[in-house]
Design goal:
The protein is an alpha/beta fold. It has 9 helices and 14 strands.
Length: 346
Amino acid sequence: MTATSHTASPRYVAPAAELPRIALLATGGTIAGSAPDATRTAGYQAGILGIQDLLSAVPALGGIAHIHAEQVAQIDSKDMSCALWQKLAARLNAVLSQPDVAGAVITHGTDTLEETAYYLHLTLNSHKPVVITAAMRPATALSADGPLNLLNAVRVAADPISGGRGVLVAVNNQIHCARDVVKTSTYAVDAFHSPEVGVLGWVQDDRVAFQRMPLQFHSVESEFVGITGELPAVEVVASYAGVSRIAVDALVEAGVRGIVVAGTGNGSLHVSLQQALDEAVQRGVTVVRASRVGSGHVMHNGAAPDDQYGFVSAGNLPPFKARVLLMLALQAGVPAERMQSLFENY
């Protein structure tokens, strides 16, 4: 792979040839955001700055890795799409297959980072380190968190110890597993956590350390590696006091292939919603019970409603990650009788 020339800033020093080669793929987000003045951490526009601007803010990268930079997209991550997931996965699989590439880093917005991370976690065909990073403050803000997060992400990707763990998320000096990490704050710098299971490890200065390995299937071991074709329509609905069946009925009529329901507590469903979802299953729609609660497991209920109505429980996957797995499973043609074991093993 030919290194990209970084001419945007005279401060950026080309790295030595013996350093690892890291592919850096930018997609926009707050880490590339710009506000009218340095005191604004809200009201900014995401994805304004290009990858060269991000690199020029972190000249220390030149001492860590030889960077190949690409601008894959330049969006606010609230506008992430399945098509862009597939484009990003295809590009990553291509660059990671090159022998001279040691790993990859993706800059991303925080709003849908956990969904993109999990999609890539299930579809990338490589044991090489892949690290997603982001920022809660725009690049123009006082004490912007993006530059340090980017530095740490490259450091993690460049360290061979990071390989074989699937897609990682490096933010706020912590390293999270793509399957576990969720955004938990609208404004705090430490917005990302891995409820119950905790972080995989941490990075500070020149040290990268891990405490555990992910156990669920991912990357090379995943049956969804290299999956192609338009992903089937899967939507998310919620259960709450007084909920009607209107949304479920409309989605079934619209032809969705799957519905993930963010239930109360242990994925429990309002009686009216449960009836509508039961009828949806009878019409060929796959229904997965998740929870709107921020942590815990939705246990498979062998009596009701799961076995009785043909529902699948999501385990500890939150609703929006359960949607990612269900889309991939439906696209791959996973039969109904395997769906529950799939959610237990991924």
